[in-house]
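cron nightly-structures :: item 1 of 1
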Amino acid sequence: MTFLLTAVFGLAIGAALGLLGAGGSILAIPALVYGVGLPLSSAIPTSLLVVAVSAGWWVFAAVIGIWLGRRQATSGPIANLLVGRAVPAYRIKLRPPTDGVAAALRALPWVTGVEPDGPDTLRCNVSSLAEAESRLPGALAEAGARVVSLAPLAPDLEDVFLELTS
């Protein structure tokens, strides 16, 4: 009977905390102490053992994935993870005429995208900020752009969240 009660508590706590995103010990220890009757001196190590087994399983899966030559989706440089809107970019405010500037920037190999970002303003996505810092001013001068301002854009939290969860 104790095993069945423990299994029911475990399933209920796992489902509730999986939906809430909280740690399991918040509810597991009181359930083990008050629901199953386990002494506190046994409930805490039991809860820690569950955490250790869960973490150990993740480490085991990661090691096997690496051993098989695969990478985890959540590892590597942040620039490789954020490949959509949350990428290195510049906002370029221009004086008219702006015709041809976007096309000239799109032709450059280190520019990954150019899109309008308001009147006489462009958003220029680049492969790296360091490369853009050294090449973008010259490229704009070659295109005949009359630059009002040029500033790197930092991705906001919403862009990063949407990029990582999409």
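cron nightly-structures :: done
The chain has a mean pLDDT of 78.
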